[in-house]
């Protein structure tokens, strides 16, 4: 099927579209890319100016970022460099989120993220000790940046997992939580940009015929979890009617 790329009318996106069109002649010199463009095709769609509601799910992500960022920075006064560093660390958190499985292999727990499409390899953060309980008057300037990032991660992570669970209802769980599906597992103590994933190897059907519990396999262990503690990945839980090219 043809590829569709949706974005708002920002000047950066408009400029990228112009540059891609200007470089199309060079891109066509790559035989594999030329064959793909010829057989599949690709098109770019811009939403109307001053109409962020047409952006749907990506605009919700922008709204969520602004909402939590304001509350996490609070009364802190950051320099330009500190604010840039904070946004960069938060950007890594957002772009580390799993959006789909990397493969269907039973023992493969890797996943696709927005970061993979931006830089190729997965985004990683060096492990850092939590400073959540350090008194505020003892924080260095760098630790303030760390605390803001950690606070943002705690709040945004919960909201993101909750939004994934809202994508399916109890009566539809049998369609989204199937054996072999890779799912996100809720875990309150994970540091920023870290996610816990597992693959469903068994489902338990209740008397009403609905799945209420699943057995999860991780790299080194297996255990049971209620479906309220697991979340299907966006690409596996999104129905056909939710895709942008079905939105008229």
Task: Please outline what is shown here.
The protein is an alpha+beta fold and 248 residues long. 39% of the residues lie in helices and 17% in strands.
Helix count equals 9
Strand order of the largest sheet: 8-7-6-5-9
Give the overall average pLDDT: 79
- Beta-strand percentage? 15-25%
What is the overall silhouette? globular
Largest sheet: 5 strands, antiparallel
SSE order: EHHHEHHEEHHHEEEEEH
Query: Got a strand count?
Result: 9
* Overall domain count: 2
Helix coverage percent: 25-40%
How far apart the termini lie comes to 17 Å
- Point out poorly predicted stretches: 169-174, 237-248
- Helix/strand/pairing category: alpha+beta
Radius of gyration: 21 Å
Overview of the molecule:
With 248 residues, the protein is of the alpha+beta class. It folds into two domains: 3-54, no CATH class; 57-246, no CATH class. The protein has nine helices and nine strands. The strands form three sheets. The chain has a five-stranded antiparallel β-sheet. Helix 5 (80-95) runs parallel beside helix 7 (141-165). The longest helix has 25 residues, at 141-165. It is globular. The model is unreliable at 169-174 and 237-248 (pLDDT under 50).
Comma- or semicolon-separated keywords:
single chain, 248 residues, five-stranded antiparallel β-sheet, two-stranded parallel sheet, 9 strands, disordered C terminus
Topology of helices and strands:
Layout: E1 3-7, H1 11-22, H2 24-27, H3 31-39, E2 42-46, H4 57-73, H5 80-95, E3 100-101, E4 111-112, H6 114-119, H7 141-165, H8 173-176, E5 182-185, E6 197-205, E7 211-217, E8 222-226, E9 230-232, H9 234-237
Helix pairs in contact: 4-7, 5-7
């Amino acid at each position: 099927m043809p590829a569709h790329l949706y974005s708002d009318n920002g000047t950066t996106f408009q400029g990228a579209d112009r540059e891609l069109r200007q470089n199309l002649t060079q891109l066509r010199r790559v035989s594999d890319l030329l064959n793909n463009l010829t057989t599949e095709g690709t098109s770019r769609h811009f939403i109307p100016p001053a109409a962020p509601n047409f952006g749907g799910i990506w605009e919700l992500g922008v709204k969520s970022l602004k909402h939590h960022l304001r509350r996490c920075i609070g009364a802190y006064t950051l320099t330009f460099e500190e604010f840039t560093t904070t946004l960069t660390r938060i950007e890594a958190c957002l772009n580390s989120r799993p959006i789909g499985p990397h493969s269907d292999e039973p023992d493969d727990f890797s996943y696709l993220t927005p970061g993979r499409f931006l830089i190729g390899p997965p985004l990683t953060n060096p492990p850092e000790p939590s400073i959540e309980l350090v008194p505020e008057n003892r924080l260095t300037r760098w630790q303030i940046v760390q605390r803001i990032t950690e606070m943002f991660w705690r709040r945004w992570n919960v909201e993101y997992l909750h939004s994934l669970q809202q994508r399916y209802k109890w009566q539809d769980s049998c369609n989204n939580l199937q054996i072999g599906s890779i799912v996100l597992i809720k875990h309150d103590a994970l540091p920023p940009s870290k996610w816990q994933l597992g693959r469903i190897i068994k489902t338990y059907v209740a008397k009403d015929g609905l799945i209420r519990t699943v057995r999860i396999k991780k790299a080194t262990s297996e255990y049971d979890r209620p479906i309220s503690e697991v979340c299907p990945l966006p690409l596996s839980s999104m129905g056909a009617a939710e895709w942008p090219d079905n939105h008229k």
